[in-house]
Amino acid sequence: MPRNFIGITMMPEWIQHEGIERTLDNLVHKAGATAVATSPYVMEPSDEKSGSREPPIDAGAGSVRLLDRTLWGRRELFVKTAPGFAPNTRLYHGLRYQPPPPAELTRKQGPVLKNFIRAAQARHLKVYLQVQAAIPPGYRVQFGGPQGDDRPLLPDGRIPPQRLANNGSLASPHIVAYHCALLKDLVQAYPDAAGLRVDWPEYPPYFLDDIFLDFGPHAEAAATRLGFDFDRMRRAAGALYTKIHGGLTNADLLPWAEADGGRYRLLHWLKDQPVLLDWLRFKAILAEELIAAFRKAMDEAGGKRIELVPNAFPPPWSLVSGLDYGRFAKNASAISVKLYTMHWPVMLRFYGDVILRANPALDEKLLTRALVRLVDIADDAGLPTLRDYVYPEPDQAHPVGERAQTRKIVEAQIAAGSTPVYALAHGYGPLDDFRRRMGVAWNASRHGVWVNRYGYLSDAKLEAIRQVCVKEQ
What we know:
Elements: E1 5-9, H1 12-18, H2 20-30, E2 35-38, E3 41-45, E4 52-54, E5 77-83, H3 104-109, H4 111-122, E6 126-132, H5 173-189, E7 195-199, H6 217-226, H7 230-244, H8 250-253, H9 263-270, H10 274-300, E8 307-312, H11 317-321, H12 325-328, E9 335-339, H13 343-358, H14 364-375, H15 402-416, E10 421-426, H16 431-444, E11 448-452, H17 459-469
Parallel strand pairs: 1-2, 1-11, 2-6, 6-7, 7-8, 8-9, 9-10, 10-11
Antiparallel strand pairs: 3-5, 4-5
Helix pairs in contact: 1-2, 5-10, 7-10, 13-14, 15-16, 16-17
């Protein structure tokens, strides 16, 4: 069966800035796109005090990022947003979290989204809306977050001191209820949308602490309901956390630095640690229940025909994030697997810096090689030291292997069974490297690709998408 799905994420600020017809010309004629995703907000320039940086700085590491396309005349700027529509407040009655009220910007610019959807459909483009899965109010990743006991906790009860993805606890009824109401609202406000994409329906493992979530009160209540021994899981995860944060030796790292990434040693170790497997399964069930609740909410709102497409971390990160592709496949129309390859080196660096500070006697090169194998981002031994792994500059190729990227998509598709898995490539980076990564994404997925996002796609990159993908159709 020929692949003919080529989607591009285009946030609404580009529609506002460049105009509907120009952006659609670029999508259809330059890139050969068959689908587009946007979000239900509108934007305007702001200042550093009251706005947020565009593009996002990714916990400081991504401050090197610049847009490929100028937005209101700049490649980096501060912005503020407002809802693109007037939320139906009845859907949120009595909930802990409430949607932001419409603003003057909503009145002036909000209609552009419905106009864009109609114009895109006239050009035979499928239109999706993207929101966050566990970050109220959910319109845009950089704004909002959980409150009080909805914040996920480490095994010792602490809130992680640093996070990139400000997700709430997937076990929180308040988080789930709000986002179900949001999806119902979107189904009713944009009934012509082809689908809803939900981002981060998991515990995104950007930092080492993120891997050890969630041991908050809502997770404890869910564990009791589901028949898991919460105290045993907390003790086991806490013991592993303590080992990593001060109990590691070079001898511990040697197996992970081998060509198989220590997989045999890992299985040998886990057979004596069944409670840790219970903990991973518990997280997977929480994420599965979240997606099932989303599908039910959309159906109840009259959106049975509207697709539900979660964005997902790739293997092996998905094992600790809670996103089980087989479980998600029961309720997802498709799954988009992120090849956000500019994040992978800096995630490795985040992990390694913490481990080395806590275990200063470790051999840095051995630690680096072990982490490269463990997260599987290289086709060889990788770069030699942690210091070599940084957030790539806009003109730097991403230091990741082609076969490693392919393995992640293939494994995700095998786990998802018959549910389509799209490779979600990222537009950030130099043209030649982007073209190479697009080729990997296109060839790895049997069903097609998404590209994130339009602001990083120069005209030359748009043409590269067509050259890589459309020529085979």
